[in-house]
Amino acid sequence: MHKVTLHNRTATALTTCLLFTHFSLHSVQDKCAISITPLWQELEHKNERIEQLGGKPILVAQITFKKRLQQPMYLDSLQLQWHGPTMQSLAGSLYMKSFDKDFVPLERHLVCDGIWHKAEQKLILNFGSRQTLSAVNTFYVVFRLSPEQQTAVKNGSFSLLPHSLPDAFRPCASSATLTLL
What we know:
By secondary structure, the protein is of the alpha+beta class.
C-alpha cells in the first residue's frame, strides 16, 4: 500500500511538472509572432546598373517580428531556406523599416547583404550588428534577380530557419514561409 501511494505521489508531481512546462512554453509562444508577407515590387533602378547589381532589384517580402515580452531579445542573423529548383546564386539584402515611413531601399536602412550558400540552398543574412527587438520590428527582403531567376523563385518557396532566431521565436518559424507568385 505504501509503495502505491508513493508511486502515485511521484506520478502526480511529474504530471504537474510536465503541465507547468507545457504551459510556460505555450505562454511564451503566444507572446511572440513572426509574419512573412510576400510582395513583388520592382524597385526603381538604372538599366546600366542591373548587371552590376546581379539583376533587377525586387522587394520580395516583409518580415515582421512581434513580441509582448519585457525581456530583451536580439537578432543577429536570419536564414532563408530555399525549397525549389536548384539555384546557382541568389543576391539578396535585408532592410529595416523606418517606423513611420514607407519602404525605400536607402543605405541607412540596410541591415546587411546576404550570402548565398549554394550547397545548402539558403540565403544567410548576417547582421553587421545585432538588432534589439522591440514590440514590433519590420524588415524588408530585396532580391536582385535576373529574368531566369524571377521565373525560378516563383516555382518554389523560402522558409525561415529557426536556429538563427531567439529561442522565444523558434516555434513561430515552422509556419513562417514565403511563396512568391
